[in-house]
Amino acid sequence: MKRLASILAFTLLTGGVASAATLPLPAGTTAVPLAVITNDRDTSVSRMNLMVSDATVSGIYMETSANAESDPADAKSQVYPLAGIESHDGVVLGQGQGVKAIFLRGNIASQDGHGSLTIRYLTNGVFRHWAECRIDLQKLGPHHWQLVNAYDGRPIERIKVKTWALGISTLANVCPHSAA
Length: 180
Prior knowledge:
single chain; mainly beta; six-stranded mixed β-sheet; globular
């Protein structure tokens, strides 16, 4: 059992964001910065952006660099269409070696300027335990949106993925404090 746990932890923690091919920002779309995402297992930095076209949200655009000093031209990017985010299962934001570890789902009402999102993450890969945290999304201006902590009302500019041997212990600045 201990060996299985070690293998699973290695598999889960050596992957990065879910990625197929690097995709450019769709034409006619503006990337509105939401948050910077880091983790405690490597130096990668992801920038989460809302894709907005003519005041309508069309999805989320993620750019991931090897570290904070990396050339932006070397960043890998991924497009998450709104239809996928609003689907029953949402979209896979993070995985490692085929293990889907972080999902995002929810609704974004462009015209109302609000959104309600849920991040679901794998806390224990051996026993397949999951946790969820809610995030609110608010429009502050034509090209200015922000993530808001649904539990304390504070704006979220940084998300720190905190891991442990078998999965993810918490998403700092998003989820209520939890011990793993």
